[in-house]
Amino acid sequence: MATSSPYLSVRSLGGSDLDAAARLLGRGMADNPVHVAAYRGDDASRARRHELLVRTLLRHSPSWQIEGVDRGDVLAGVAASAPPGRCQPTVSARLRLLGRASTFGPVAASRLVSWQNAWSRHDPDAPHVHLGPVSVDRHLRGHGIGGLLLLRHVARLDATGATGYLETDRPQAIEFYERFGYVVVEAAEVIGVPCWFMRRPAA
Ligand SMILES: CC(C)(COP(=O)(O)OP(=O)(O)OC[C@H]1O[C@@H](n2cnc3c(N)ncnc32)[C@H](O)[C@@H]1OP(=O)(O)O)[C@@H](O)C(=O)NCCC(=O)NCCS
Which is the closest atom of ligand 1 to the Cα of 79? Predict the structure, then answer.
């Protein structure tokens, strides 16, 4: 008997969804090279630490657009983006993030600060919509879920004539983003990890 894949649907996430979104982003990115370098430890502890920071960030970034793909009734992928001028955390979010990072110990906290400062230095001065974090649950990758999130994202960029921008530490993700019109504009080593900075020109 033929079986069908669960239905995929995209929606905006808010309030009560943010904990699940942070959990997904934590576990989905725990093996990203820059996360391994910053958090160290095993996969589960990196996932938990990243979840805690991302939850703080999502809860305290009210202007961000956070979208999720449900596969059936399970959240399978998340993409967050900051509108122009809002990609840096607010002062209150920054203090909360620092407070949380300090509970990971001074060495991890200082690596996290170095990583974030290095990425911030590459932010374009010109107005842009800043994409990230983006993640699809590991066992569901390669089924078009990330593509659905990106299609929605670039449709909004095109509708508003906005420039897109993102960072990635995964060489495999470069080709994925190139499909949606992003091009690598810079590359740099950040806390010992190669990172790429990508821009999508305004339509
Ligand atoms: C990058 C990512 C969001 C893509 O989501 P996805 O649902 O796998 O994407 P899609 O199924 O729409 O497209 C898959 C394509 O992306 C590429 N891809 C990139 N990373 C991949 C991965 N880890 N697994 C599978 N495909 C990946 C493949 O080239 C694939 O191409 P194909 O369709 O020709 O096989 C997802 O792989 C992911 O969450 N990666 C880990 C977190 C991360 O690195 N996020 C981006 C950092 S900025």
Answer: 3
Using the predicted structure, report yes or no on whether residue 29 has a pLDDT greater than 80: yes
Residue of 5, 34, 46, 176 with the most ligand 1 atoms within 8 Å of its CB, for mutation: 176
Contact 42, 57 (CB under 8 A): no
Report the candidate in 49, 62, 28, 48 with the shortest Cα–Cα distance to residue 139. 28
| Interval 34-47: pLDDT, tens | 999 999 999 999 99
Q: Give the mean pLDDT of 167-183.
A: 97
Counting ligand 1 atoms within 8 A of each CB, the residue from 32, 141, 169, 199 with the most, and so the one to mutate, is 141
pLDDT at 163: 98
How many Cβ atoms are within 10 Å of 165's Cβ, its own excluded? 25
> What confidence tier does 4 reach under pLDDT thresholds 50, 70, 90?
low
In the chain, the domains with their CATH numbers are 8-200 (3.40.630.30)
Q: In whole angstroms, give the CA distance from residue 156 to residue 153.
A: 5
Whether residue 100 has its Cβ less than 6 Å from ligand 1? no
Is the distance from CB of 128 to CB of 163 less than 8 angstroms? yes
> How do 164-168 and 129-136 pair as beta strands?
parallel
89 pLDDT band (50/70/90 cuts)?
confident
